[in-house]
# Entry
Amino acid sequence: MFPRLVIAGVQSGVGKTTIATGLMAAMAGKGYRVQGFKAGPDYIDPGYHTAATCLPTGTAGNVSRNLDCWMLPEVSLKELFLKAAKGADLSVIEGVMGLYDGYSGRSEAGSTARLAKLLAAPVILVVDAEGMARSAAALVLGYKNFDPALNLSGVIFNHVGSEKHYQTLSEAVEEKTGLKALGYLPKNAALKMPERHLGLLPAGERGELTAYLNKLAQVMAEFLNLEEILSVAKSAPPLDYPEQSIFPAGQQKKVRLAVARDAAFNFYYQDALDLLVAWGAELVYFSPLADSSLPQNIQGVYLGGGFPEMFLELLARNHSMAESIRRAYKMNMPIYAECGGLMYLSEGIIDFAGRFYPMVGLIPGKALMQKKLAVLGYMTAEVINDNILAKKGDVLRGHQFHWSILTDVSGEVNCAYKLFSEGNPDSQKEGIITGNLLASYLHLHFAAHPQLARNFVVSGLKYAAQDIIR
# Structure
């Protein structure tokens, strides 16, 4: 039956992540097997979900997955959801932005509402009730009536001043909308998640995370009606399991791919990594911060996004790792770098204060941190030059979110893509191809285009064949 629900917000910043994560922690603490999901392209929130699902045992939890209904075809999205939700007692899907916000103002594409309807999942709406009383009912009624096809099933209030305040809110909402008030979170600064320039501080950088999640679970158990919330999840109708279409069966291990994973580089979609494995890759993780070289006996390197700008001194001092990557490049090993990975492979990074830190130096130009967000949004990418992932003429969907720009680029550059975005009729060239290296600010989800994972593995196989000849 796949019990499931969506935690959506009336807008960004109302506490979706706090409530979704706390709900996962509270239900896991009661012994339920909980699977977390995040709507849209966010990399940070799933880290909190994953940590929450391992409470109270402290063992590995269920890795949270991204469900992006703009990047992913509908059938693929359903397959990814059902594959991960199988065996879970409860699936909690955290929404993105406001409930109806998505790719554009003209349609529901890419929105939490669209995702909820695709998965026939009931929605619980989070309302920031600070400075609000009976007016909350008018707000909720508008969200309910905006799309009657959506299964809006309850409301949770955040930043509530007192039990009397909650009573006023719940009475008004239940009378005027017919929706059940399922509890609230009181005003409590200790529950606020710390932020920085790309959003929340990643879960891996919070040393007190377990204590925080335990506290959050306790507050949830006290102020939310967990049994009623579970009942909402169980009210979801059955879902048909589609035929497997993304993951190939019976593939033998063919190549070893080194994947950068540490505090500086950790932006990966778990399903994309799983897809590489399904196509025959053995993933070997390494740390550009702490390790002295790439792993031995590898046939490819994957440098994901993250926060290299927060660890510049450590990265700049690790000369042996930079030299190891340069050697791999000179041997024509396939190397794929996204966003933070591109910054690391550049000549250097100029931080927010204007200080320059030398990096690997495989990409012409420097990554210059900006005082404000440089680019945010979904992109359609037309491949304009063959590379290790795609062929000229392929059309891909991806996402960009970065505070740096590539500057001081010298000489002729072999670009990978022409990018098109909503509301911008002009394309722009993006991505750099040099040798067997592809680096770009564009984040791709391999499950949206499974041939990308296959092509990466094939690139590793070709390199391995050349290595034997050498």
User: Anything to note?
Assistant: The two ends are 55 Å apart (CA to CA). The chain has a mean pLDDT of 93. The chain has two domains: 4-234, 255-469.
